[in-house]
Amino acid sequence: MIPVIHDSVQTGFSGRFAAFSVALALLLLPTTGCQKAQKKDSRVPVSIRSVPEKVNINLISHGKKLGVTHWEGKLPPGTYVFEFTKPGYKTTWRKITCGVDREDLEVKMNPISASVILESDPTAATVATEDGKTIGETPITLPDLPVGKHSYILKKPGFSPRTVSFSIDDERPKLVKIDLSSNIGTIIARSNPPDANISVDGDPRGKTPSTIKLEQGEHIITITARGYAPYKEKVALSSGQTARVNALLQMLPASLTVTSDPSDSNLFVNGKQYNNTPTTIKNLTPGEYTIKIARDKYDDAVRTVTLGPGQELKVDMKLDSNMGGIDLVVHPPGVTVYVDGQKIGVTQQGETKDLSKVMEIRGLKSGEHIILVAHKRAVPLEKKFKIIIKKGKISRPRPVTLWIKDTYMKLKDGRKLTGRIIQEDDRRVLFEDAPGIRIGYDRKEIVEIRPLAPDE
C-alpha cells in the first residue's frame, strides 16, 4: 500500500505539468497585432432557380425545408435530394452531388392539368369561351385545362344560353353534364289577303297563313304583299307561349299612264275626260277601267284594263286615221269647190286656159260627202254630187265640167252678149250665149270681142 504522501507528491507533479503545458501554449501564440488563425470553409456554393419563381424547396434527404426560389447558399460536400412544390404545379424532384465546385440548378415546373368531357342534353350545342370564341359542339373534350376555375357558354337554337363553370383541382379527368332549357314560343301569322310574305327580324319565313317557332324575346313580324302597304308588329314572345298576328293589309292605290300615237289626243277613262295624252292618272282604286282615245280625223281607240293594288300600269294606244281624200278635176279653172258646205279652194289653170290642175283634197273622214262646185257665171251656177270616201283611200271621180261664160261680145246693132266662143276663124265666130244655144256671127257684125274680167 502506497502511502498517502506519495499520492500527494504525484498529484502535485501532474498539476505542475499541466500548468507548464498551458504556459508553453501561450508562449507559442502570435505576439500582439497578429491575427487569429482561421479554419478553412469546405462548403460548396449552391444556386437554385425555377420557372416559375417562388417554388418551395424541401431538402428531403435531410428532412428539412430550405426555402423558396430563387435560393442562394452553401452546402457541405455530399449528395442531396430536393423536392420542389408549388400550388397548381406537379411536384418535381432533383438530386445533386456537391463536390468542390459551385452547383447551379434550374428547375422548370409543369402545371397540373386535366381533361374535361363536356356534354349537353340535347347535344350539338355550340361551346364558346367567355370572350365569345367558339371552340366546338357538345359532346366535346377539353384537354389540358390548368388548375383553377373555368367557364364556358353553351348555345343552341331553341334553347336558353347556359353558362357552365367548374374547377380543376388535380389531374383527374372530369365529366360535366348540362341540361339545356327550351326557350321556344310559337307565332301563328295570318293575313287578309292570304299568301303574303312573312319575315321575322328581317329574315324570310314563308307565306301566310303560317305557324312559326321562335326563341323567346322580342321579334319584329313584317307581312308584305304586292300592291299592299307593309304590315309590322312587335311581338314579345315567352317560352311555351303562342302569339297570334292577324294582318289586315291596306290596299295601295294604282296609277295609269296613257300615251298615244299621235300624241295630244283626247283621253277619257270610264267616261271622265283627263288631260290630253301623254298623261298619268294617280290614286286610282284598283279595278276595271275603260280607256278611250279620241282625235279629229282618227277613229276612236278603246281599251279595257284591270288595275291591281299598287300597280303602275302603262298603256300605249295607236289611233288609226279614218281619213281619205279626193283628186278632183273641174273644168274650166277658177271654179270654187266646197266639201260638206266648207270651202276648199278654187281650181287652178292647167296646160290650157280651159283645163284645170288636179285639186288634191285630203283629210276627209270615211263615209259619204257632198261635193259642190260653183262659179258666178256658170249655168247653172253650181253642181252638186255625192262621193263615198273609204278610210285611207283616195277617190278619183270623173272630171266635172261647168258651162261658164268667159267672153264678152258687142255687135254693131248694139247688142251686148256674154257667153263662150265655140269656134272661130278670120271670117266667122260661133258663139254660145247659153248652154246648147249656138249662133254664128260674121266678123263684120262684131264691134268688140274680149275675155270677161274675173269680176265681171
Architecture blueprint of SSEs:
Layout (H helix, E strand, L loop, with lengths): L3 H25 L15 E8 L4 E4 L4 E5 L2 E5 L2 E8 L6 E7 L4 E6 L4 E9 L4 E4 L4 E4 L2 E7 L1 E9 L2 E10 L5 E6 L4 E9 L4 E4 L2 E5 L2 E6 L1 E8 L6 E7 L4 E7 L5 E8 L4 E4 L2 E3 L4 E6 L2 E8 L6 E7 L4 E7 L4 E6 L1 E2 L4 E4 L2 E5 L12 E7 L1 E8 L7 E8 L4 E2 L4 E2 L5 E5 L4 E9 L3 E7 L2 E6 L3 E6 L5
Parallel strand pairs: 1-7, 8-14, 15-21, 22-28, 29-36, 30-37
Antiparallel strand pairs: 1-4, 2-3, 2-5, 5-6, 8-11, 9-10, 9-12, 12-13, 15-18, 16-17, 16-19, 19-20, 22-25, 23-24, 23-26, 26-27, 29-33, 31-32, 31-34, 34-35, 38-39, 38-42, 39-40, 40-41
Give your account of this protein's structure.
With 456 residues, the chain is mainly beta. It has six domains: 44-108, Immunoglobulin-like, CATH 2.60.40.1120; 113-179, Immunoglobulin-like (Sandwich); 184-248, Immunoglobulin-like, CATH 2.60.40.1120; 254-318, Sandwich (Immunoglobulin-like), CATH 2.60.40; 323-401, Immunoglobulin-like, CATH 2.60.40.10; 407-451. Helix content is 5%, strand content 57%. It has a five-stranded antiparallel beta sheet, with no helix packed on it. A hairpin with a 4-residue loop joins strand 2 and strand 3. The protein is rod-shaped and about 195 Å long.
List keywords for this structure.
mainly beta; four-stranded antiparallel beta sheet; Immunoglobulin-like; 42 strands; rod-shaped; five-stranded antiparallel beta sheet; 456 residues; 6 domains; disordered N terminus
